[in-house]
Write a structure and sequence with these properties.
The complex is a heterodimer of chains A (300) and B (235).
Chain A (H helix, E strand, L loop, with lengths): L1 H8 L8 H17 L3 H19 L1 H25 L6 E5 L2 E4 H27 L2 H11 L1 H30 L9 H32 L17 H22 L18 H31 L1
Antiparallel strand pairs in A: 1-2
Chain B lengths: L1 H30 L5 H22 L4 H20 L9 H12 L1 H19 L5 H20 L6 H27 L5 H10 L1 H33 L5
Helix pairs in contact in B: 1-2, 2-6, 2-7, 3-4, 3-5, 4-5, 4-6, 4-9, 5-6, 6-7, 7-8, 7-9
The chains are: A mainly alpha (300), B mainly alpha (235).
Chain lengths: 300, 235
């Protein structure tokens, strides 16, 4: 199970340079948030679901859907209740008009949020914390180091809590027994000991870092990422597709009139190209994954 | 002599840059004629964090200056995870406030923002991450400022501030929910969102007050002791 998971995270888009995978999610999430347009939202949502199924597995996707569908419904319903713009009044609720336009807009914006959330679940799997820190270590080295340090401290603190709790129990201050007041007291003691320990430990770490030359040179990272030919190709593809996205946005093809009345825009040749490029962008992780799976099966 | 002037110059340059970027982005959005408030607000909140982070980055901080902040951010994140089973009841804000009271406003902002970012690497990142970073960072920053002015010394001041914090946090995140979900963000829709979130924000506030009362004295003393003993962040 564990090895399977380890294999899974290291496949597809994960095998590319962090700059490529991070850039990909920036492009696709930006597109998702930019285009309040039913076609774009639908494309993004379907691609996100497909990619999440391939990258995170069906089980994780179902969990996301279980949380996302009620959210979708809530936003879709909330918009027409809060917002009374639009020409076509369907009915009145508590003297407030509920319009068709607001209803459709609510569904589109709910779909947009839903797609963004699913894309973020893919992001969380592909761009692991070490990759995130690798990228931001170049722009904001000190901030990246703090975040990296915080992340490594979290499991260490958890382990220390256990040690402190055990030793407290051995001197008769078990936080799991006694009255509630006593237990809160013992719990607070554990936390208080933890803070003292962690801060003193932090100072020792800092002095040790200084002794070993922190701040003298540029910091290197543990993970070695190589920017190869395939990364360059993929990055180029992402940039081209992103350019198409930006063009679509700037030329106003990515928006639609919702108020006062919905105007369904006619699709011309350029629109078709934009849609195809947007679909291509959304399908990149899925295509890489499927290609790799096929190769794997052939080799087996 | 040269160093502070350079720093001043950089800070000014940065200030001007951000001041120009803000209206530029606004203009771009108005020009494009799109009322995509979700994206607009997202850009704004990220921009709002830039000066804080850049200022810190430019200082080229010593390891001793920031490692205690990483520790406090980690404890705040662990606290958030430890109480995750009680919705909205979390010690994170209280821990950030205590840190800010000892180490100052800038350190408070950093601790809050890092705690949000780091804990979300466990809870899952999303469009809400920048908002949480900003909200907790701001709480830390205000706590640091108030403490610097000696306004958080008395117990009732601390309780009052803690009680406000849950609402500061909730209302900042409501901007996001409102802007992200509701077309044509208006005061009415924002206010109705704030009314619906009164109870969750209240629980957050209550948790902050409780943890401040429990921890402020003892943890404050510990942090001050470490600060004095090892000479950390003694400006």
């Amino acid at each position: 199970m564990n090895t399977e998971k380890a294999l899974k995270t290291e496949s597809g888009l994960s095998l590319y340079h962090p700059l490529v995978s991070f850039g990909y999610f920036v492009a696709v999430i930006a597109g998702t948030l930019l285009f309040i347009h039913p076609f774009f939202v639908l494309i993004s949502l379907l691609c996100a679901i497909l990619c999440a199924a391939l990258i995170n597995g069906k089980k994780a996707l179902l969990a996301t859907l279980g949380f996302g569908v009620p959210m979708f419904a809530f936003i879709a319903v909330a918009n027409p209740l809060f917002n009374h713009r639009g020409a076509t009044i369907l009915f009145y609720l508590f003297d407030n008009p509920v319009t068709k336009e607001a209803m459709i807009y609510g569904m589109v914006s709910a779909g947009m949020m839903f797609a963004a959330v699913i894309w973020f679940t893919c992001y969380n799997t592909v761009v692991t914390s070490d990759k995130f820190i690798y990228i931001f270590g170049r722009i904001l080295p000190s901030i990246a180091l703090i975040v990296s340090m915080t992340l490594s401290l979290i499991p260490r603190l958890m382990a220390q809590v256990k040690i402190i709790a055990d030793s407290q129990r051995s001197i008769g201050l078990d936080w799991k027994s006694g009255s509630i007041k006593q237990r809160i007291h013992s719990g607070a003691r554990i936390l208080s000991i933890l803070v003292s320990w962690a801060l003193e430990d932090a100072v020792i770490t800092a002095d040790s870092m200084r002794a070993r030359g922190y701040g003298q040179h540029k910091r290197s990272t543990f993970s070695i990422f190589r920017f190869g030919k395939k990364d360059a190709k993929m990055l180029l593809l992402i940039i081209v597709l992103l350019a198409a996205e930006i063009f679509a946005y700037v030329s106003g093809r990515g928006t639609m009139e919702f108020y006062p009345a919905i105007v369904v825009p006619e699709i011309d040749f350029i629109d078709t190209i934009i849609y195809i490029s947007y679909i291509a962008l959304g399908l990149i992780p899925a295509v890489i994954q499927i290609k790799e799976d096929l190769k794997w099966k052939q080799l087996k | 002599m040269q160093k502070p002037s350079l720093k001043k110059y950089r800070t000014k340059a940065l200030f001007v840059l951000v001041c120009l970027l803000f209206p530029f982005c606004l203009w771009l959005f108005i020009k494009s004629g799109m009322e995509n408030y979700g994206l607009l607000s997202m850009v704004m909140v990220i921009l709002a964090m830039v000066p804080f982070l850049m200022l810190y980055e430019m200082k080229k901080p010593q390891a001793r200056e920031w490692i205690p902040l990483a520790v406090m951010a980690a404890i705040a994140a662990v606290g958030r995870a430890a109480f995750a089973f009680v919705p909205h009841f979390k010690p994170t804000s209280a821990i950030i406030i205590i840190t800010a009271m000892v180490f100052g406003p800038e350190a408070g902002f950093l601790t809050g923002a890092v705690a949000a970012l780091a804990s979300n690497l466990f809870f899952g990142q999303g469009p809400w991450t920048p908002w949480q970073m900003f909200a907790w960072g701001l709480i830390g920053f205000i706590a640091g400022l108030l403490s610097k002015k000696g306004l958080l010394k008395k117990k009732w001041q601390l309780i009052a501030f803690g009680a406000v914090c849950g609402y500061i946090y909730g209302w900042i995140l409501n901007i996001w929910s409102g802007a992200g979900f509701v077309y044509g963000l208006s005061w009415q829709s924002y206010l109705s969102l704030c009314v619906t979130s009164l109870l969750p924000d209240g629980i957050h506030s209550a948790a902050t007050v409780i943890f401040l009362l429990l921890l402020a004295d003892s943890w404050g003393a510990k942090l001050r002791r470490v600060k004095d003993k090892f000479g950390i962040l003694a400006n």
